[in-house]
Amino acid sequence: MEDLIDCWTTEYQRWKMKQQQVQKFHLPFCAFKFLFLSRELSKLREITSRIDAINRDGQRYKSNRTMIAASDKSHSKTSGTGPVQDRLVVSREKDKEKIIEQLTTEKKAGRGTFSFTPIVGIGGLGKTTLAQLVFNDENVDRYFDFRIWVFVGNEFDMERIFREILVSLVRSLNVERRQATESLKDMIKKKESQPETPVDPTLLAKLQTLFKDASPLDLNQLPSPSDPNSLPHLKDLDLHYSNSLDRLQTRPEIIDYTPLSLAQLETRILELLTQKRFLLVLDDLWNHKDEELEPLVKVLNHGAYGSKVLVTSRLKEVSNIMDSASPYSLQCLGDHESWWLFKKLAFKEDSDLIDSEFEKCGREIVGMCQGLPLATKQMAGLLRGKELGEWENVAKSQTWKARVEDTQILPALRLSYNHLPSPDHKQCFSLCSLFPKSYLYEKDELVKLWMAEGFIQPPTHGVGERTEDIGSRYFKELSDRFFFECSAEDNTKYRMHDLIHDLAQSVSSPFFCQVKDMKDFDEKSRHVSLLQEQLQKPTIEIVNKSKKLRTL
To answer: In the chain, helix, strand, coil percent, each to 5?
Structure first.
């Protein structure tokens, strides 16, 4: 229908241009115009026929749903719309403890000052979630001087990895500095009437360490007390450094390191990392070749003994990296753990009693998720707040019976997509297939793209919600169903799981298309993203070949 409307619009504009050129002449009959109208009417009849057939099917489906809903009113009270915990972790405590023990036990490193610890398993098992649980543990925080998180993904780019390491290091250092300066200010405030009070020695040592490279904050330049063994007074710290500390706290969290070369990035990392015990998480690593990892290993070996690199990967071969420790193979959840996870997400948290029919149907659905946390969360997000009839429809869906060789998309993910609230939600989700895997999404920017494409329907009567607010609601509804999840390295941004991205590409093809090579291009595509370094030639080729292009 959009193609037809575009065709009419184009023809109308052409007609207007001709009218301007021949205003004084009027042709009573035009063979071309007659042929155009005849052709377009034929297309319109075909489209309206298809729409009528879809409408008839829809009416039958709506009638069935109404009958189911009428018989299920008594069951709709047990399921609710309780809050979803973004980082709900279930039955991974034992896994967490074992990995933390590996990370914090002093063992001889493989080839230098640090060692690799791989977590391996199939997609959707929760490897990243487990790594986050370990990364944020208080004992791990105390044990390591720095904790660094880098998402690697399929595209192994050493310069990008170095850049993200540096950003993570600076962010971690700024947090430590901020906490130390707040402690100093609190101490000054409490001892305001006693300016001669010596500073706490532990705090002073921490400040000296944290600010030794932050000009002009050199605490060694403090005026020496009369007694060489005494500590500097609070008034001295306040007098000389309070304004500088304030300025430090107003610095931006993240600095753009894009202009720096690989050598410059390496130099800056070494300034911060040398002789420091660190934990580096390399999330979703696919490259396991020693020679390609060598530049990273060379830099990391400047850290203190006991440093660790925690790797998550689907490949068991990563255990061959630089004499890594034995890989920690993450297993699927058991029936009890899977049901617990589903129950916590699908029902209100304060619900002690669950209707037996809901539980029976829910356990059947959970069993078909095969112990994969990602699939279980998708089903819980889909069914939260729904009536029993809809649960039964999902449980009986033919999608579960799709053979693995027919598609690589998990049936649970396909079902979750099929049951999105509206076609607009599906369009918005499909647009994400234009971005590369592991892309870091910003909610507001994505909403603007949806608006620009016309995927968000404005309010019916022109009042009420703004289009931006509707887009934000769409994003929240997709996030509540776990199509997006908060990024581990920046909680203001979002990532899409690789399997969810595969789903987006599957359901959007051929109308949405990523082009890394012109062989990938489909002339039927309406929306195209070009992922190449050389853009001019392929751009011209795409524009010339595509007759229905809307986005490039």
So the answer is: 55, 10, 35
**246: CB partners within 8 A, 6+ apart:** none
pLDDT (tens digit, 9 = 90+) per residue, 261-284? 889 889 989 988 888 899 999 998
Nearest by Cα to 446 from 506, 496, 507, 508: 496
Contact indicator for 482, 378 with CB cutoff of 8 Å? yes
How many whole angstroms separate alpha carbon 362 and alpha carbon 371? 14
In angstroms, the CA 270 to CA 180 distance is 23
Give the phi and the psi of residue 5 in degrees, each rounded to 5.
-65, -40
How far apart, in Å, do the first and last CA atoms of the chain sit?
21
Q: Which residues pair with 527 in a beta bridge?
A: 512, 551
Least confident of 62-71, 104-113, 354-363, 390-399: 62-71
CB 131 within 8 A of CB 121: no
Query: Which tokens go with 38?
Result: 């005849």
Which phi and psi (to 5°) does residue 65 adopt?
Answer: -65, -40
Which of 127, 134, 132 has its CA nearest to residue 373?
Answer: 127
Q: How far apart are CA 396 and CA 372, in angstroms?
A: 19
State the burial class of residue 91 (Cβ atoms within 10 Å of its Cβ: 0-12, 13-18, 19+). Answer: middle
d(CA 299, CA 303): 8
Ordered by where they begin, the domains of the chain are 2-62 (no CATH), 93-329 (3.40.50.300), 335-487 (no CATH)
pLDDT in tens, 287-322: 778 788 889 989 999 999 989 999 998 887 877 776
Phi and psi based region of residue 217 (left: phi greater than 0; alpha: psi -120 to 50; beta: remaining): beta
Cis peptide before 216 (omega within 30 of 0): yes
Burial class (CB in 10 A: 0-12, 13-18, 19+), 196: exposed
d(CA 469, CA 467): 5
Q: What is the mean pLDDT of the chain?
A: 76
The SS3 of residue 73 is helix
Q: Is the pLDDT of residue 215 over 80?
A: no
Tokens 């279980």 correspond to what residue?
376
Residue 373 to residues 103, 363, 404, 407, Cα–Cα distance (Å): 25, 14, 18, 20
Query: What confidence tens digit (pLDDT) does each residue in 222-259 have?
Result: 444 444 455 666 666 655 555 555 655 555 555 677 78
**DSSP line for 388-406:** HHHHHHHHT-GGGG--TTT
